[in-house]
Amino acid sequence: MKKTHKYDMGVIGNCAFMAYIDTKASVRWLCWPRFDSSFIFGDLLDDEKGGEFSVKPTAKIIETKQYYITNTNILVTEVYTEEGNFKVTDFAPRFEQDDRYYKPLMMIRKIEPLKGTPSIKVVCNPTGEYGEFTPEKSQGSNHIRYLGYDQHMRLTTNIPLSYVMEENPFVLSGAVYTVLTYGAPLEAAIEATSEAFFTKTKRYWRNWVKSTSISFFHQEKLIRSSLILKIHQYEDTGAIIASGTTSLPEYHKSTRNWDYRYCWMRDSFYTLNAFNNIGHFEEVEAYFKYIENVTRQEEDRYQPLYTITAQKQITEIEMPLKGYLGENKPVRIGNDAYTHIQNDVYGQVLTSLLPLYADKRFTNKYRMHTKNLVEHTLQKIADTMEEKDAGLWEFRDRPGHYCYTFLFHWAGASAAYKMAQYFDDVKMADKALKIKERAAEMIERCYDEETGVYMQAANSKDMDASCLQLITMNYLDPNSERAKRHLAGMEKELMAKDGLFYRYRHVDDFGAPETTFLICAYWYIEALACVGRVKEAIEYFEKVSSYANHVGLLSEDVDSNDGSQWGNFPQTYSHVGLMNAAYRISKKLDLPNFL
User: Which of 208, 233, 262 corresponds to the end of one domain?
Assistant: First the structure.
């Protein structure tokens, strides 16, 4: 295994699905019809059961290049061989049509020669039921049907069908197209339709970027993070998933392999903050509606996570697959964390709702149905104040009174107080203030006089990077000596090289962590900016962001020893961290925003 292990893939998507394409133009991961459905192509987790969708030259590959077309989610892979060169352009169509967004389950691949006369072979062998089902192929007039799925799956192409059916090579003398569809097939002209969809999709993404409000601080990184965050939103419901993959390990053979294709309520504050910071409210409004639908069905507890269609049950099972790199088992589908008690979720919901009332750009229609939700959620904070929970990191066998949970009790109550003022509800405001004061008392139970650091939990000597947010969320005055001492203590214990940060260093259910967690590094960078150490914040922002892969995508974890990427990929948490850290630094630098 290479020391410089990186995920050599780019990701395309249209807010209905995502596909992962490696630097040799093979589709390594694609789930249909939803983000959390079985993979259609999944050799990322099993090279035998995962199917194949590839464009392979017959000659030896000399070099490959992969990049996004500027300010889009359209991916280009160039392949240089001893016989000639070609490129593959991959995209998921997305554009406005009839006052709606057209976002079909359709993946278009344009394959064209660059130099010479390369000979290639196109293979398309989808699978289903996580590798347990192989569809029967049937040849049509200009398409191949894959039989046995819930809906029609077709590969429509102007490549001679027999070459694809029999997996025979052919000379690439001009541009050819493949259009893979699930559900409604492509009935129109292949070349003209593909080119029209390409032009419209490119225009859509570039217009979306143009409407993004960002400063001049590392714009290119911020644009890529914004684009990748956007395609992780399942537009049908507004849910935003943590990642499009499952069971990519936190480090090699760690067994820390989780399914992240769900919507974590604990991420809502950070995600909505990121979209707010770049001025994209359509995504924010959709996510608000998702949160409202999730919480409206809950009379008692809120779960830490839900499916993209707001379903509660996410049963975790292990699948008979080889795992990443052929040796990272188990492969898990579903996530048992939905059963965990994570009480910070109530504060997350309230802080997420606050912009509806504090930001004048939102109109009254978004505030009509939320008062009962605010009251119920505030009461849940009061009810769970003394209760142990699993904490932010979802410890499976370590219940505690976690500082991070109390911080969001405090922040949630603060948000509820401001919303009570909007409602002109004196009783709610008074209740919120009392809960806020009680939460502050609980936070102080986590303070260690000897080190000057707020520990992971009450009566604990373990540090936790989530406590950096005592500074970034203004529980601690960033200018105070207490904040600076707290930050210094956490640096000493949890910081690795280049500003990378461990979540914690203690042993948990699976042993001691071996990789750093990227969102924690960006929290650290934000904390540096808050306390006035802006020069260091910029330096570490640049170093941490350099751990992205060749197309600017961030994983969940980084091994500080060799810079390896690990964990599910790309990780919205990491990209949101980059976006929020960049925003914090640009405000400190007083750089102008523009539309």
Answer: 208
167 shares a domain with 231: no
Taking the CA atoms of the chain, what radius of gyration do you get in angstroms? 24
Q: Is residue 47 part of a domain?
A: yes
Residues 345 and 452 in one domain: yes
- Do 198 and 280 belong to one domain? no
Q: How is 184-232 classified by DSSP, letter by letter?
A: SPP-S-HHHHHHHHHHHHHHHHHHHHHT--B-STTHHHHHHHHHHHHTT
Same domain, 261 and 121: no
Residues 6+ apart with CB under 8 A from 142: 156, 157, 158, 161, 190
- Both 100 and 222 in one domain: the answer is no
H or E, element range at 442: helix 426-444
Instruction: Please give the Cα distance from 199 to 9 (Å, whole number).
Output: 23
Q: CA angle, corner 264, sides to 258 and 268, nearest 5?
A: 145
CB 356 within 8 A of CB 416: no
* H or E element, residue 77: strand 75-81
Domain containing 98: what range? 9-208
> If you search the block for the tokens 């769900």, which residue do you land on?
262
Is there a domain that residue 594 lies in?
Answer: no
Residue 2 lies in a domain: no
Please give the structure tokens belonging to residue 120.
Answer: 């290639």
Tokens 């936190």, residue located:
250
Total structural domains within the chain? 2
How far, in Å, are 184, 352, 539 from residue 236 at the CA level?
A: 17, 20, 39
Q: Which among 261, 239, 308, 242 is positioned nearest to 45, based on CA atoms?
A: 261
Task: Look up residue 160 and give its amino acid.
Answer: P
Residue 256 belongs to a domain = yes
From the first residue on, what is the mean pLDDT of each consecutive set of 10 residues in the chain (595 residues)? 76 98 98 97 97 97 97 98 96 94 97 95 97 95 94 96 96 96 92 97 97 90 96 96 96 94 88 86 87 83 93 96 96 94 93 80 64 90 94 84 96 95 92 97 96 95 96 96 97 95 87 91 97 96 97 96 95 95 90 47
CATH number for 284: 1.50.10.10
Whether 204 and 219 share a structural domain: no
Q: What is the CATH number of the domain that holds 84?
A: 2.70.98.50
Cis, peptide link before residue 249, omega less than 30° from 0: no
Strands 18-22 and 9-13, bridge-based pairing: antiparallel
**386 plus 463 within the same structural domain:** yes
Query: Which two three-digit tokens encode residue 234?
Result: 């399942």
Residue 38 has φ and ψ, to the nearest 5°, of -60, 150
Q: Which of 79, 76, 39, 73 is closest to 55 using CA atoms?
A: 79
Predicted TM-score (pTM) of this structure: 0.95
Instruction: Give the Cα separation of 123 and 54 in Å (integer).
Output: 5
Please, what is the end-to-end C-alpha distance for the chain in angstroms?
A: 45
Beta carbons of 322 and 330 less than 8 angstroms apart = no
